[in-house]
Amino acid sequence: MFTLFIALENMTAEQYCLSLDSRNLGCYSITEFPLELTVKLEQSEQLTLLDTKQTTLLTTTLFIKSQRQKQRRRLRSPWSIF
Amino acid sequence: MSIRSKIVFIVLLLIAPWCRAACTHDEQCVSPQSWQFGVALGLGFGSNPLKDGDTIPLFILPDIAWYGEAVYFDNGELGYQWTEHAHSAFVTFLEVDQERAYFSFWHPVNILNPINKNSNLTALDGGLSTGPEKLSIDHIATRDWAILAGTRWHYYTQDAQWQISVWQDVTGTHNGQKMSVYYQHSWNWQTLRLVAELDVVWKSSKLLNYYYGIRPLDKVDPFFYYQAKGGWQPALTLSIQKPLNDKWLWLTKLSVQKLNKGMTQSPLVEDSSIYRFFSGFAYQF
Q: Cα–Cα distance between B241 and A13 in angstroms, integer?
């Protein structure tokens, strides 16, 4: 999971919406910014700022530069044949 | 485009790595679709509570695990993991019932005279009037292996783990059951890793009576007939690991398991506890 910290400057409209690729992250009042959002990100995705008419205002790409291989927790203790 | 010149859109990623589940100790983590294989060479033993049962020597201790996405094999347990969360897991599995091992491992009868496993009590062959003599596993009918199906719930905290398990014989060998409550706590002290495990196991009368009961099928003096009863068998295990480098570690394990009266009062059983010890050097491939 990632936590996004989103700040707006010099923005005047009362409400803005956010999307991550095709996922709608919700619409927020200008007073709610700066905003923290927790998102699940498994690959690089595009974060978009929209107005209430769904017009794209800004976009930025969240790149995953490296990813640790998923690991499972062993269900028996090592050397448990003992 | 003019709006872009007027605004600043700041995005910071505060917390990064997403992990499938909390897997904080490297030796307990495994990548899906991969094997973990290790061999420990050293000296050790497992005591045998049966009369004339041989102490089981431990020179080699393997550690073999394979994990897929949900299916796994880990040190003799073949299972399927239904849920996997940071703090809990739920699995079902099959494993061989280890109870049978006391009746065969390196036992002279099995090495020197494997055909005569159903032999009668020698001292009583001439008649049943000789009175009670010593009875041991040399004189009784063969006990079969059983496959147990089990289900287990794990609960993890930072340095501890709880498990609640139930087992059922699915081979019809004894149709018995087991259940256990298990607690494990680990500490890291300097370069040592210390692990304490408490496992309180309940074994059913069907399970214990199959292995430790004496019945007409054993063809011994009826004086020895015995019906074993189920009960609790708590076990404490302590282990110490000291990594020597990326591949080698020093490993010592010690355990004691207390047996219930329903088992220890069997004419086949002479010890009230089972002790195990192993110390050696382990290599992890």
A: 62
Residues of A with Cβ-Cβ distance to B9 under 8 angstroms: 6-8, 49, 57-58, 60
Q: Enumerate residue ranges in chain B where pLDDT < 70.
A: 1-27, 105-133
Chain B positions touching A36 (Cβ under 8 A) are 14
Domain map (residue ranges) of chain A = 2-62
**Which of A3, A10, A69 is nearest residue B14 as measured by Cβ atoms?**
A3
The percentage of chain B sitting over the pLDDT mark of 70, rounded to a whole number, equals: 80
pLDDT digits (tens, 9 = 90+) for B143-180: 999 999 999 999 999 889 999 999 999 999 999 999 99
Q: Which tokens in the block code for residue B98?
A: 């280890």
In the CATH hierarchy, which fold is given to the domain comprising B22-284? Outer membrane phospholipase (ompla); Chain C (2.40.230)
Contacting residues for B176 by C-beta, under 8 A, at least 6 apart: B146, B168, B169, B203, B204, B205, B206, B207, B208, B210
Q: Which of A40, A47, A75 sits opposite B72 (nearest CB)?
A: A75
Query: Could you give the ipTM of this predicted complex?
Result: 0.76
